[in-house]
Amino acid sequence: MKSVQRKILVPVLAMAFSGAIVLSTSFDTPALAATSSAPGWLGSLGSVGEPSDDTSYAAVAQRINAVLAQQGIPGAQVVYADNGTERAFNYGVSSVATGDSVDSDTVFEAASLTKVVASYVVLQLVDEGVLDLDRPLSDYFDYPRIAADPAAGRITGRMVLTHTSGLPNWATGPSSPEFETTPVGTIFEPGTQWSYSGEGFYYLQKTVESLTGKPFQQLVRERVFDRFGMTGSDLVTNPAFGAVTSVGHTADGTPKPVRNFPRANIAYTLRTTALDYNRFLRGALLDGDGLTPATRDMMFTATGSADHGGSDKESIEHIKWGLGIGLQSNELGDAIWHWGDNGPYKAFFIAYPETGRSVVIMTNSEDGLNAVDGIVHEFFGPSTIYATRWIKEAE
Length: 395
Fold this sequence. Notes:
By secondary structure, this protein is of the alpha+beta class. The protein has a single domain, classed as Beta-lactamase, CATH 3.40.710.10. 28% of the residues lie in helices and 14% in strands. It is built from 11 helices and 10 strands. The strands form 2 sheets. It has an 8-stranded antiparallel sheet, with helices on both faces.
């Protein structure tokens, strides 16, 4: 176990509409009761707004604390929710240098969880007739960075959202000064295979900004943050979050400088809290608020294999890709999920649309994803988490 400064996890039940802290113990969800005997299970769950002592909740906090401490993670936020319950767990410190405690307002880099938010905005524009997913993006926008590659002119929005665009993850560092002028080209014929691509999402971003006449951070503010009350979120560096921004840490616990994101990039620049992201996950994705039912269903429909060429064929068999989101099938049913990796920040969410159960995890450590299996098992009981197995060979 790595030696880093940390503080004990404090369990709270955060009310999305008021910020009040309460505990509750009522148990009225048959789908959860059916698995309550699983080792490490939460035990009793409650409906938001019914205060009482909850010893099982404190026990869960202790077990999550142990999972995170075992991996040497300085700080984290975890939010579990189902239909009527939201439980937030805040752990450790936002920086080992300051010792400031993580609370529900602490802001983390969400990394590639940004892509899911952006995909939701793009699909709204599809519903509104602004963008056709199957029309080449080059019909809408002349992107100088792909000018030398005729194949890149055949990339569609659907290919971007399903990571079949043929563009690499990054042609150069996306935060570098030369990024906007560095040429990028396809590494295979668009639409023929799966390969994770941040470049594809940035091409889509530039296209959408051209079509709407608005910077993407404004679109996200209007269509996501304001809609779902995400007051602790932004796509660019927000000075108002300075005092509550967590610091990323290397695997040995060394704090890293906080990065400045003056330029939005829908592949990775979202800063948010686990509670905010949970509001988006439940409102936009699980409830489908802001999308037509057909488009929301299309988002969760597998478009083909997400075969990244790894050796774990079993995990590849159980992982597919929808429109901007990962899909997993296991013993518990069909789930939507995504992971985020910004180096010293790691993030993850998984949700089961059929039962309405979800968990969001934000960490400020390079080792953050190592804690995902233990946390997911705590809330969902024993199951095969193919997503984390798949991730290990995707990076």
